[in-house]
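User: Quick sanity check before I run a bigger batch. Here is a single chain. Can you write out its predicted 3D structure?
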Amino acid sequence: MTLTRPCILQAIDQTIRGDGDAARRELAAETDVGGDIRVVLAFTCWFDERDDEAAGWLRDIATDDDPLRAALHAAVLAAAGDFEEAERKCATADRLAQDPRSRMAARAARAILAYERGDRPAALGELRTLQIACIRSRDDLGAMWTEAWTARVLALGGRCSEARAMLDAVEERARAIGAGGIVALVERSRADDVMVRLRGQSDFSRFGTRDRAHLVESLALGLSGNVALAKARTMHVEPKDAFERVLVLLAQGDVEGARREAEAGDIEERLVEEILGVASCRGDLVLDGRIHELRDDDRRRTVSFRRSKNLRAMLYALARAPGEVVTKEELAGRLWPARYSPHVHDNALWVNVRRLRMALDGTRLVIASTIGGYTLRVPERFVYIPPNAYDDARRSTIPPAMVDLDQRRRDASS
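Assistant: Done. Predicted structure follows.
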C-alpha cells in the first residue's frame, strides 16, 4: 500500500488530530478512489472505531499481498466478531510483514483480535510487546494508541485505578501535541471502566465487551435490590477471570464471597468497596476523587475535573474537612512548590478559587471566604471519595515539603 500520496498523508494526519470526518470527505472527493484510497478511508473509520463503515470500504479489496491491508482487515473483522476470518488475515499479515512498521501493524491486529475474543491476557501480551516496539522506533503516536488500548484491557480486568491513571497520562500527552484522535480514543477507553458503566454514563459497545455489558446490567439490578432477577441473569454465566467472578458474586448479593474472591484473585483492594459505594451514594452529592468527578443527583448536574489538576487539588483539600477553614498557605501548597508568599501567590490563588467556584455553580457545594482561607459548605448527604493511590493530583500537585493537612490537625490537637 502506497502511503506517500499527499492526500493519504493528509488524511492520516487529520484523523490523528481528531478530524476524521474532514479526512473522509476529502478522500471521497478524489477523482480516483482506487484501492489505496479505499484502504485509507477504512483506516480513518477504524481509528475512530466506526468499524461498520471501515468494513464497507474494505469490501472486495485484495489483502493477500499487503501486510498493512491484511492487518487492518483483521482488526475490522475482529470488531465484527468474525474471528475465524480475522485469524486468517492475521496469519497473512504475519507472513508478509518484513519491515518494522508492518510487523507492528500485524501485532496491533493480534491485540485487537485477542481483545474482541475476550482473551485479555493475550491482548495485554501483544500490547506490551507493541509498546516496546513503538518506544524503540520513537513512534510516540503509536505508543499513545497502545497505552490507551492497554488501559482499556486493564479496566476490563479489574485494574481500574491503574487504567485511569494511564488514560489521564495519555490524554495529557495527546493534548500537548494536538492529537485529538488519541484524546477521543482515551474517552472511549474510559467507558470500559465498570464504575463508569454502573453510573449509566456509558455503554459497552464493542463486540469484546458484550459479555461485560450483560454482567454490569445484572450487577446494577443486584445493587438496586433486585437480587432475585440478578441471580437469574447470572446463573449460567461462565466468568472469564477473577474480576468477572467478583461481579457475579456481587450481583448475587454475596458480598463476603466477592471480597474473598477479590483477595484471592489479586483484584484491587478498593474495587469491591467502590462498586458497593455506587448503591449507597445514589441520590447524594458525591465528589468522586477516583474519577475526578462531582455528581449532584438532586440538581442533575455532573462536573468533571479530569482536565483541571489545580481545581481538583484545591477541591479535594477543602472536601477532606467540610466546614473547616483551609488556609491560603495550605491551598497554595497544593498548587505551587514554592513557599507561600501573600504578595506572590494571593492573586493567583484568588483566580483559581474563582475558577473553582464557577465550576461548582449549579451544584450544592459552596466555597466561602474566611479570614486567612476558605471553607467548603456542603449539604447533609455529601459523600467525598478520596483519590486512589495512582491519582496524579495526589502525586504531583502536593509538594513533598508541604506538611499534610491531616497531620497538621493531629499535631494541633495533641
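Residues 389-414 have pLDDT under 50 and may be disordered.

User: Great, the batch can go ahead then.
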